[in-house]
Amino acid sequence: MDKDVTRARRTILAVPGSSDRFIAKSRTQPVDAIFLDLEDAVAPPVKEASRQRIVEALNDPQGWQAPTVTYRVNDWSTPWTTMDIVEVVGGAGAKVDCIVLPKVTDADQVKALDLVLTQAEQAAGLPVGGIGLELQIEEARGLLHVAEIAAASARTETLVYGPGDWMASMGMKTLNVGSQPPGYVGDAFHHVQMSILVAARAHGLQAIDGPFVGIRDLEGFKTSASSSAALGYDGKWVLHPSQVEAGNDIFTPPAENVERARRIVGAYRDATAEAGGAVGAIVVDDEMVDGAGLAVARATLAKIGERA
Questions:
Q1: In what helix (H) or strand (E) does residue 136 lie, and over which residues does it extend?
Q2: Above 80 in pLDDT, residue 4?
Q3: Closest CA to 299 of 197, 189, 226
Q4: In degrees rounded to 5, what are phi and psi of residue 12?
Q5: How is residue 7 annotated by DSSP?
Q6: 152 burial via Cβ count (<10 Å: 0-12, 13-18, 19+)
Q7: Computed over its alpha carbons, how large is the radius of gyration of the chain?
């Protein structure tokens, strides 16, 4: 099955896999995606038990309002990664759209996940390749190898910036994850975010911004989200319902841009067809549009989950 990089991912809600209450609350949140977490949000003593809780949640017929449902395994430096894959995919793989792999430092880690996931799919009688990957870049080694990481598996759908571990990796002087460190004039995250974005786009992937932990600081969240959206990011993780509406709004293209993108796609399709004269460049709204303009239009529609 081909990877799906046209999913809308404006807001992705993080949900602790150890909490029935938070799982239940997540089902009705108006986000584009959720991920059930086995990593940072779950304490070591309950990680193994949380796998079964996630399996049960995935198999619950109530489902989620969010159209995309994923879960996050523990990273490869821990003793849990393989069984996180085998047990959840074996128990509820048909309900999983993607697996999130944290703290990716090189391409071999992605290839290892792909191999284990392939065997888990086969054992469960699932189509091989049906479950996608979302890869978190969270430290210096990961950023140095980000292009190779992006190219390591045909399953990969997104690269995700992880600000918390990135800030720790760099030794930044702040404890407020996602906030700019005081004393630095400029955007301390520009290099890492742009590097991830370039690698994602070069390999046909989405780029997702990580969380802003100040759940009562809505203006701070908006500033963080607006910055990554301006760069071209497709969406952002959210930690609390208070961040959802703002996130959806910030990462939704303006209505006039969506309508123009639809006009461009339709007009270009007609013009390039043989019946339309097989023209390669056209005029839409008094502006020239060629293949590059078409690509921009399609990218705009992809942000709302619309294929073109």
A1: strand 132-137
A2: no
A3: 197
A4: -125, 115
A5: S
A6: buried
A7: 20
Name the amino acid, one letter, at 234: D
72, 19 Cβ separation under 8 angstroms: no
Tell which residue, 229, 226, 233, 189, has the closest CA to residue 207.
Answer: 233
Closest CA to 140 of 196, 58, 88, 60: 196
CA distances from 132 to 118, 141, 193 (A): 11, 23, 22
Read off the pTM: 0.88
* 3 state SS of 195: helix
pLDDT of amino acid 258: 87
By C-alpha distance, which of 186, 220, 225 is closest to 208?
A: 225
Structure tokens at 279: 């023209």
Crossing angle of helices 218-231 and 190-202, in 10° steps, is 50
DSSP string over 229-287: HHHT--EEEESSGGGHHHHHHHTSPPHHHHHHHHHHHHHHHHHHSGGGT--S-EEETTE
Q: Are strands 287-289 and 282-284 parallel, antiparallel or unpaired?
A: antiparallel
- Candidates 224, 238, 214, 176; CA nearest to 25 is 238
136-178 confidence digits (pLDDT tens): 999 999 999 999 999 999 999 999 999 888 888 888 877 778 7
Burial of 292 from C-beta contacts in 10 A (0-12 / 13-18 / 19+): exposed
* Three-state secondary-structure class, residue 114: helix
Q: What pLDDT does residue 1 have?
A: 42
Phi-psi region of 78 (alpha: psi -120 to 50; beta: other; left: phi over 0): beta
| CB 33, CB 72: distance < 8 Å | no
